Prior knowledge:
three-stranded mixed β-sheet, 2 helices, globular, binds zinc ion
Amino acid sequence: MCEPDTGSGGAADLYVYDPETLSTAQCMGDACAVCHVQWPRPRTVLGALPDGGRVLGCGECAELMGLAPRSRTAHALTAVR
Ligand SMILES: [Zn+2]
């Protein structure tokens, strides 16, 4: 058919968070959107904000949400440098 393939919108699959449910640090990507941890810094994208910002989460929460890139890799702890 004539439906466009994914290429124009971007971030279409991300869950959109309500900024009012997040703290300032969470909106800034400085804290995990789930457990508020700020260190180690959250670096996994858990979702997006209505204004296009990214909502980040720590690896553990991302894994719980099924968003971790390699959630079943036992050796992932030493993979990132
Ligand atoms: Zn977390």
